[in-house]
Amino acid sequence: MALWRSGRKRVLRPVVGELQLECEVLAAGGQDQLLLVHAAAADSEVASRLELLRVVGAGA
């Protein structure tokens, strides 16, 4: 698996507002399979809002 590209993604959720997430796209087997990983820095405000979203549910 190799890092194909990285960047930032902006996600808007009604309950927690705007989330600026780091995004990495990992390629496996050429470009036939891609794994997208979205993350927030540990102990950041965004990480806290992601935890709140986990508790209230993705449907919120």
TL;DR?
By secondary structure, this protein is an alpha+beta fold. It has one helix at 45-56, and strands spanning 2-13, 17-28, 33-39. Strand 1 and strand 2 (17-28) form a beta hairpin.
Task: Name the descriptors.
20% helix; 60 residues; 3 strands; three-stranded antiparallel beta sheet; alpha+beta; 1 helix
Task: Reconstruct the topology from this structure.
Blueprint: E1 2-13, E2 17-28, E3 33-39, H1 45-56
Antiparallel strand pairs: 1-2, 2-3
Structure description:
With 60 residues, the chain is an alpha+beta fold. Helix content is 20%, strand content 52%. It contains 1 helix and 3 strands, in the order βββα. The longest helix is centred in the last third of the chain and has 12 residues, at 45-56. The protein is elongated and about 40 Å long. The termini are far apart.
Please report which band the strand proportion falls in: under 5%, 5-15%, 15-25%, 25-35%, 35-45% or over 45%: over 45%
Question: Please, what is the average pLDDT?
Answer: 86
Shape: elongated
Helix amount: 10-25%
Provide the low-confidence segments as ranges.
none
N-to-C span: 34 Å
Secondary-structure-based class equals alpha+beta
